[in-house]
Amino acid sequence: xxxxxxxxxxxxxxxxxxxxxxxxxxxxxxxxxxxxxxxxxxxxxxxxxxxxxxxxxxxxxxxxxxxxxxxxxxxxxxxxxxxxxxxxxxxxxxxxxxxxxxxxxxxxxxxxxxxxxxxxxxxxxxxxxxxxxxxxxxxxxxxxxxxxxxxxxxxxxxxxxxxxxxxxxxxxxxxx
Length: 176
Known about the structure:
mainly beta; signal; 176 residues
């Protein structure tokens, strides 16, 4: 099969590459991406800058299978002798040791008592960023789309990328 890569996607000349994909089924209406069926997969592929339009078939390395013979066998088949069956066990069963009825000694220490110490000073700085309501979304989570009501903020170095009218997701900056 031959496919055309999207503009800007390259694999180094004639070489093996890894094709990765992620598909969300969206078969659970009214539920965010975490409740949807998701499929992840990858495949090793070969990409060539020099391939022709029709690759030639490779020669077969298998030897031909011989036709069945009509000759009669010269020797009788060999069968293994069956293992003899005995009704008696070969070893006497061993008994597990029984626990003693009383402990050998009493505990010697008591549970330590910890006291709570109040802080001596108030913090000198205030937070600089307002927390994200409902929490930011991690890489590959949904962050937008038509009728989406969750957080539109991404965390951990990801940015919210629109995929289509119905879906946006947090994509790590290193993959953009």
